[in-house]
């Protein structure tokens, strides 16, 4: 079967020969206009006078737009607030677009955009978390508070207590391909948008809204992105809308791409945050009560900040069963770029906060943090039986789906159609599992970190290496080593429940070839290959028979963003659903041809079998065509079981959890703060992998990117709210030499207990948080410098490391 | 001004402003879009091409400086058959989004040549070769090519598998 094979990325050959086309590589159409924004030079205030004569007179400039020249507000926001006008006179962050230039070349547009003479009525910007708190500058009126048990009593009555605080920086996406879009005007006001975006449907929606068109008048096509990481979920709206405005007004194609520095200034980043905590615990480190406050810097507009902050709250427990907890979340509005989705989507911030708390407790008790972690873990799920989960799930989704998802995806090679799956008995005499719930009331039934932890500690030789690190550190000198373990439990599903749906379109041609289209977008994560493998598996053919095509809102409509790690889960299921529809039709035709029952037809080895007889898949396709039966079908899927009340913080926001754990060893120079990762061991749960090669690549890449967030990637703003780290010369992402010197990544073998596509699990985001072990290892190395808790801040730059060492020494 | 370039063994006579970068000449005037503009600062390496066999950041070099030079871009690394490095990148999963891949391949091609010619690097023990393709040498010599997907394990495995055979 084509699933579970380590096939290369679908565009592998195109990538190595330079043939893979990205938006800015599209052939230039005659008359194309190139766009650039004129960017505000202050962080907060009003534009008083705007003299754009020099801009208009600059070589190559065709036309210039200010807010007044637009057909309407042209809102670019992904949030219900509609708070992001394309151009504005009211400046809310440094770099905000205030006018738009269309010119005959990219360079001409950029040069002209700098010639505006603007005077401002400046106001004092709100830049930091503390400034925003003091001014109560925030979204949603007040903080969101979720509570489980009685945290104050838990803290007050606990034998031990401590409190602390952790500041963590944001993160620039630095997708290697910057934001880019092109709009081509077609006949009768139709627009074709080609954009580097994770969310073609939103681009379609926002472009149509901006120009007063119907969504049906706008088609968005997206073949591939040169990296997304969340940064192309909403941030591409600006370029697409700007191009659409220009294309509609001039009748000429318009293309826009941000120069790297502009991209870093204009677009939002990972939310930087501070986590304050007070915790009560016992002598074993078991948490009895926890009060945690998450202060999230959202930037100037709402964008996706609410669901990001929600997800930080949803991961405030990390992997631990906390009897009493209060989570308070402040969503702070500041005059900085509007922070947005970034791999993990708030999860890393929430989880890092809790892992810091456990680390702090362990230091206080003088115990190995691994033991404190294990003491607080949720209880392990019962082991899986060989075929499927112990407790088949009942679909308790309030609204019944119109169309059922493909029935059963057991890994057995049975692909016969019509083997329906009965509803499991779940009456009052059914055995009830021990209820353990997250702070938001979701039962945790698939916890496997006890097993993963035990296996990883053994395979990484944790105990012996811990002793070796201690010996190394006792020997003195300027260098210290640190070793740390950290677990990951990451919730899979969009927390906005209606987004958990997907569509696909599959055609089988009369020669037996297959063309696949689905609502997900390819940004390097191998989604297209995985969905192609799923489709091929349903037909019992090799994956190379499936032609992968660009995401296209004209083919599969109303798609959700490719985000929340859900791409393969959702689109894989939708494609399987479409394939199964066609397969059933083909089975009927072949059964008639071979004189048997459709239920007995099997699709295997590129042939269609019935008993001992068979026809090739090509023949079956031809027979079906000649029988005048449709070989084309759309498929649909919606994730079952979800119900979620975000204001109360109660329900089941996630279909399942993905798990993993890492052990990282670091070396630190206590004189300079310079540090490096010596060795990393990872054991990560991807369920039954759809493609182990792609999954391992995702895990390695996510870890290194996460380690970048927590070590070298530092965003710096000056006192006027100007981003000073707006190029790779000042903002350091991991290079080849920054990856662990020894890097052992293993997939945890096992099936997803929830009924996902072939029992696989999402992999895009969860392993990002494995990098928390690198941060904790650095903290561990700092702790070897003195008796006090180092309270290392993130990112662990040399400056922060030296501060932590001073704190550890009690200086 | 007129600039004559040989790109992937094909001659081009271009009429260019003297300030046009080599990268813009290749991408916008010749129409070979394999070489990428990642940062336009010479920091990310996505624009790496070979000039007379030596790797350079095409975004930091003016086309006018290369009149008469032989340039190889990612499109010129194979003539139908994949080069050993290209094949190794596929086998070892040396990419995810693929945007840095053209630069990585050109850079690795040039880098292996530099090692074989005995050029030292910052981490070399001495100034006199020969040098082995150790992990430290490889990481140092490829540190100018960033991969945000962080496919470095795959990229390194691919380069090593070719370098060790050479």
Structure summary:
Chain A: This is Xanthine dehydrogenase molybdopterin binding subunit. The complex is a heterodimer of chains A (811) and B (166). By secondary structure, chain A is of the alpha+beta class.
Description:
Chain B: Residues 1-77 form the 2Fe-2S ferredoxin-type domain. Chain B: GO terms for molecular function: 2 iron, 2 sulfur cluster binding; metal ion binding; oxidoreductase activity, acting on the aldehyde or oxo group of donors. Chain B: Pfam families: Fer2, Fer2_2. Chain B: This is 2Fe-2S iron-sulfur cluster binding domain-containing protein. The complex is a heterodimer of chains A (811) and B (166). Chain A has 811 residues and is of the alpha+beta class. Chain A has three domains: 11-16 and 23-124 and 179-225 and 232-266, Aldehyde oxidase/xanthine dehydrogenase, a/b hammerhead (Aldehyde Oxidoreductase, domain 3); 125-171 and 273-383 and 438-497 and 650-810, Aldehyde oxidase/xanthine dehydrogenase, molybdopterin binding domain (Aldehyde Oxidoreductase, domain 4, 2-Layer Sandwich), CATH 3.30.365; 501-638, Aldehyde Oxidoreductase, domain 4. Chain A contains 19 helices and 29 strands. In chain A, the strands form seven sheets. In chain A, strands 3-5-1-12-9-10-11-20 form an eight-stranded mixed beta sheet, with helices on both faces. A five-stranded mixed beta sheet of chain A has the order 7-15-14-13-8, with helices on both faces. A four-stranded mixed beta sheet of chain A has the order 16-27-28-29, sandwiched between helices. In chain A, strand 14 (287-299), helix 9 (305-314) and strand 15 form a beta-alpha-beta unit. In chain A, helix 6 crosses helix 7 (237-250), helix 9 runs parallel beside helix 10 (347-365) and helix 10 (347-365) packs across helix 11. Chain A starts with 11 loop residues before the first helix and ends with a helix. Mean pLDDT of chain A is 94; it is low at 387-395 and 398-427. Chain B has 166 residues and is α+β, with helices and mostly antiparallel strands. Chain B has two domains: 2-76, Ubiquitin-like (UB roll) (Roll), CATH 3.10.20.30; 84-165, DNA polymerase, domain 1, CATH 1.10.150.120. Chain B has five helices and five strands; from the N terminus they run ββαβββαααα. Chain B has a five-stranded mixed beta sheet, with helices on both faces. In chain B, strand 1 and strand 2 form a beta hairpin. The model of chain B has no long low-confidence stretch (mean pLDDT 96). The interface between A and B is large, with 59 and 55 residues.
């Amino acid at each position: 079967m084509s699933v579970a094979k380590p096939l290369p990325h679908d565009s592998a050959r195109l990538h190595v020969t330079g043939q893979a086309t990205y938006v800015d590589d599209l052939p230039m159409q005659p008359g194309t206009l190139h766009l650039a924004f004129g960017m505000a030079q202050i962080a907060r205030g009003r534009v008083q006078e705007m003299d754009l004569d020099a801009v208009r007179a600059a070589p190559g400039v065709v036309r210039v737009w200010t807010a007044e020249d637009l057909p309407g507000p042209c809102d670019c926001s992904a949030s219900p607030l509609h708070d992001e006008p394309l151009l504005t006179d009211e400046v809310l962050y440094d770099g905000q677009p205030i006018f738009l230039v269309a010119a005959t070349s990219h360079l001409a547009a950029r040069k002209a955009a700098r010639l505006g003479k603007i005077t401002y009525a400046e106001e004092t910007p709100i830049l930091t978390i503390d400034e925003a708190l003091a001014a109560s500058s925030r979204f949603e009126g007040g903080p969101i508070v979720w509570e489980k048990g009685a945290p104050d009593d838990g803290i007050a009555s606990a034998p031990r207590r401590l409190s602390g605080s952790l500041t963590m920086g944001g993160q620039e996406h630095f997708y290697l391909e910057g934001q880019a879009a092109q709009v081509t005007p077609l006949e009768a006001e139709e627009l074709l948008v080609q954009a580097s975006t994770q969310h073609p449907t939103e681009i379609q929606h926002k472009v149509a809204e901006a120009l007063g068109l119907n969504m049906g008048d706008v088609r968005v096509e997206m073949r591939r992105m040169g990296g997304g990481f969340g940064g192309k979920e909403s941030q591409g709206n600006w370029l697409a809308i700007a191009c659409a405005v220009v294309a509609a007004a001039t009748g000429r194609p318009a293309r826009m791409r941000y120069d790297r520095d502009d991209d870093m200034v204009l677009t939002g980043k990972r939310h930087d945050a501070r986590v304050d905590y007070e915790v009560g615990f016992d002598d074993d480190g078991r948490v009895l009560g926890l009060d945690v406050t998450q202060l999230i810097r959202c930037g100037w507009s709402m964008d996706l900040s609410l669901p990001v902050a929600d997800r930080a709250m949803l991961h405030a427990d990390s992997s631990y069963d906390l009897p009493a907890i209060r989570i308070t979340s402040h969503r702070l509005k500041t005059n900085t770029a509007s922070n947005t989705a970034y791999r993990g989507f708030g999860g890393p911030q929430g989880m890092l906060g809790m892992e810091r708390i456990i680390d702090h407790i362990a230091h206080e008790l003088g115990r190995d943090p691994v033991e404190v972690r294990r003491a607080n873990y949720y209880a392990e799920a019962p082991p899986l039986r060989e075929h499927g989960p112990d407790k088949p799930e009942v679909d308790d989704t309030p609204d019944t789906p119109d169309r059922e998802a493909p029935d059963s995806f057991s890994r057995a090679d049975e692909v016969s159609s019509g083997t329906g799956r009965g509803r499991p008995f779940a009456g009052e005499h059914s055995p009830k599992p021990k209820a353990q719930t997250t702070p938001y009331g979701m039962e945790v039934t698939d916890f496997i970190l006890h097993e993963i932890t035990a296996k990883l500690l053994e395979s990484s030789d944790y105990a012996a290496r811990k002793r070796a690190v201690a010996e190394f550190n006792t020997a003195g000198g300027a260098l210290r080593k640190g070793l740390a373990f950290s677990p990951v439990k990451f919730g899979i599903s969009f927390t906005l429940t209606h987004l958990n749906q997907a569509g696909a379109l599959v055609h089988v041609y009369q020669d037996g070839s297959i063309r696949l289209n689905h609502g997900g977008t390819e940004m390097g994560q191998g989604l297209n290959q995985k969905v192609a493998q799923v489709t091929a598996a349903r037909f019992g053919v090799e994956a190379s028979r499936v032609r992968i095509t660009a995401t296209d809102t004209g083919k599969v409509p109303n798609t959700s963003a490719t985000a929340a790690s859900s791409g393969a889960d959702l689109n894989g299921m939708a494609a399987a659903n479409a394939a199964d529809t066609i397969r059933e039709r083909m089975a009927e035709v072949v059964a008639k041809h071979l004189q048997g029952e459709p239920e007995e037809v099997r699709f295997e080895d590129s042939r269609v079998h019935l008993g001992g007889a068979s026809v090739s898949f090509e023949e079956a396709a031809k027979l079906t065509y000649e029988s005048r039966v449709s070989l084309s079908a759309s498929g649909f899927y919606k994730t079952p079981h979800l119900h979620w009340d975000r204001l109360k913080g109660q329900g089941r926001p996630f279909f399942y959890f993905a798990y993993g754990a890492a052990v990282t060893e670091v070396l630190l120079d206590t004189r300079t703060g310079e540090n490096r990762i010596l060795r990393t061991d990872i054991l990560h749960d991807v369920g039954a992998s759809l493609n182990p090669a792609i999954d391992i690549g995702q895990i390695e890449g996510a870890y290194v990117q996460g380690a970048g967030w927590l070590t070298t990637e530092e965003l710096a703003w000056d006192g006027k709210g100007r981003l000073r780290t707006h190029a790779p010369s000042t903002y350091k992402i991991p290079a080849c030499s920054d990856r662990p010197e020894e890097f052992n990544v293993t997939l945890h073998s096992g099936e997803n207990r929830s009924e996902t596509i072939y029992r696989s699990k999402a992999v895009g985001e969860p392993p990002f948080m494995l990098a928390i072990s690198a941060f904790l290892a650095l903290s561990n190395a700092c702790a070897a410098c003195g008796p006090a808790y180092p309270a290392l801040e993130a990112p662990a730059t040399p400056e922060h490391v030296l501060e932590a060492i001073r704190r550890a020494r009690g200086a | 001004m007129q600039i004559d370039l040989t790109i992937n063994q094909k001659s081009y006579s271009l009429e260019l402003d003297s300030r046009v970068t080599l990268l813009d000449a290749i991408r916008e005037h010749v129409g070979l879009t394999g070489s990428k503009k990642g940062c336009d600062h010479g920091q990310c390496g996505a624009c790496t091409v070979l000039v007379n066999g030596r790797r350079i950041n095409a975004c930091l070099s003016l086309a006018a400086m290369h009149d008469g030079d032989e340039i190889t871009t990612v499109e010129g690394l194979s003539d139908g058959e994949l080069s050993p490095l290209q094949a190794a990148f596929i086998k070892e999963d040396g990419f995810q989004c693929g945007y840095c891949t053209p630069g990585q391949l050109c850079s690795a091609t040039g880098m292996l040549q530099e090692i074989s010619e005995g050029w030292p690097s910052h981490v070399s023990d001495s100034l006199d070769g020969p040098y082995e393709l150790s992990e430290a040498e490889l990481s140092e010599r490829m540190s100018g090519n960033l991969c945000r997907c962080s496919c470095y394990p795959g990229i390194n495995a691919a380069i090593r598998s070719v370098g060790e055979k050479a």
